[in-house]
Amino acid sequence: MNIKYIIIVLGEPYSIFSEIIGKYYRKKKYPKKKIILIGDVSLLIKQLNKLDLSLPLNIIEDIKYAKFNILNIINIKFNFKKIFKKIDSKSNKYIENSFLKALKIIKENKNECLLVNGPISKKSFLKKNYLGITEYLAQKTKSSNQVMLIYNSNISVSPLTTHIPLKSVNKSISKIKIINNIKKINNFYLEILRTKAKFAVLGLNPHCETIDNFSEEDKIILPAIKYLKKYGFSVDGPFSADTFFQKKNIDKYNVVLGMYHDQVLVPIKTLYNFNAINLTIGLPFVRISPDHGPNEAMIGKNISDMSSFSYAMKFIDKIKK
C-alpha cells in the first residue's frame, strides 16, 4: 500500500461536515498526500462563506490535476436552493453519485487511495436497505464479511454484530464469525499499523452467566478463544462487559471484541468522546469515517467539534507504507 490520495466524500449536504472541513484546514494541516473532495463545489463554497471559514479550492475533473497543500475538489452537482436546511431524501441521488465517483477513482488507482466519508443520514439515505454505510460500500464493491472497528490508539473496539435489533444478537453470533473477525483485525494491525493486536473478548450475558440451558459463553465464545490461542493469537476472555472497561483491564489490551453494537460503542465514546474513528476492515481499500453524524441541531451554527476528523487525519499519518 502506497497512499497518495485521500478521497473525502462530503456526504450529506445538510450536515456539520463543511464546518468541520473549514475549521480543520483553516489551520493549514495538510498531509503529505493529495486531498480530493467529492461533492458540490458551489454549496461547499457558500456554506464555508456563511460560516466565515472560506478556503482556497482547486477545482479539478481528474485526480491527475490534483495538487499538494490545497483542497482539490471534483464537482458533483446538487440542485439546492437553501444553503442549510433539514435533511430529506432529495439529497439521496447526489450522495449516491458522490460515492460512485469516489469508488471509481479508487478502483482506477488501486492501493493509492483511502476513503474518508462525511456523515450520512442512515434514515434518509439508506432507508433500511442496508444496516449501515459499511454494508452499503460492501455491496457496491462486491465485498463480504466486513468488520467495524472503532479505533483509538489506546484501545479500539469492534462489535461482532452491528446495526441489528438486540433480540437478534444471540442468533447472529458464532464461533466462526468470532474467529474470522479477529483474524481480519489482527491482519489489519500487522499490515497497516505494523503492530500486534492484543484482544479481549466480552461475553454476551451479564456476568458471562445465564440461567438458560444454552450458554453462548460456553458453547460459542470460549471455544473460539481457545481455537485462536492454539494458533498463536493474543486473545483472552470472555470478560464480563460491566466491569471490563476499567483502567487496570484496558491497559492490557488494544482491541476489545464485543458481541453487539452498544456493548462496546457506549464505553469507548464515554472514555474518548470524539477521539476515535470508525474504520471498515475488509473492503478493497481503507475506509475511515469520523465518529459523528450529520448533527442537524448544530448545522450552520459554527459550534461543532472537529476532534474526530482531526483524529482521522492523525490516524492516516500512522499508516505505514
CATH superfamily of the largest domain: Isopropylmalate Dehydrogenase
Count of helical regions: 12
Q: Provide the low-confidence segments as ranges.
A: none
Average pLDDT figure: 92
**Rg over CA atoms:** 20 Å
Number of domains: 2
Instruction: Briefly note the CATH topology name of the largest domain.
Output: Isopropylmalate Dehydrogenase
Strands ordered across the widest β-sheet? 3-4-2-1-5-12-11-6
Largest sheet properties: 8 strands, mixed
Under the CATH scheme, which architecture of the largest domain would be assigned? 3-Layer(aba) Sandwich
Please give the CATH class of the largest domain.
Answer: Alpha Beta
Distance between the termini: 6 Å
Helix proportion range: 25-40%
Beta strand %: 15-25%
